[in-house]
Please model this.
Amino acid sequence: MSDEVLVDVDGGVAVITINRPRARNAVNGAVARGIAAALDGLEERRDVAAYVLTGAGGTFCAGMDLKGFLSGDFPVIPGRGFGGIAEAPPKKPIVAAVEGYALAGGFELALACDIILASEEAKFGLPEPKRGLVAGAGGVMRLPQRIPYHVAMEIALTGDHFPASRLYELGLVNHITPVGEALAGAVELARKIAANAPLALAATKRVIVESADWSRDEMFKKQAEIIDPVFGSKDAMEGAAAFAEKRAPRWQGE
Model:
């Protein structure tokens, strides 16, 4: 793991930190490779059930490192996309903890997450048109799926910064925290998620993500293909037994 990406695992939650505070955590090739490598390892670990993605030094991420872009250092991983995550988010739930700025590719990294927590002074934006670029890491595709069309157009076409409070009103940001407490809030929420059965979490996330393309005729059939193995799992039996015995369940991920 490179110094540009830090990973800390505790209590079933892995905190993945972009560690380039002097560059406002702009994503270069090393960051993209670091995030991809971290997820490759963490996805197989049974002691990790959820992730938090954040940035060091009071900023989430200012987007692509434009100096690196000019030198040919592209922050894209084949099959994984920008930042090693934009095109292939992890199977396990991931929460974004946003302080400061989440701009351009930084906003797109947050959009690749399942839940967003932001401090009251955080700002979001897709300023690519101001630099002759286009938000190609999912921003202009995911944003209109999450908020009203006309607001998504305003954000994408003006390139302006929008406060976390506005995106909270629109339902894009789940929770607003005091400045400096986004990470703590995200970890607390991730631990609440991680307390649940890992197979059930992965299946639930998969159904929510994939069902957007399902027709009415096929939706329950496709859902069954994903969730039926969960109902036959050891964890399903353990969940029922724990409930009956009035104790906390002991998940095995099986």
Observations:
- Residues 180 and 234 are 40 Å apart (CA to CA).
- The chain is about 40% helix and 15% strand.
- The chain has two domains: 5-195, 198-245.
- The mean pLDDT is 95.
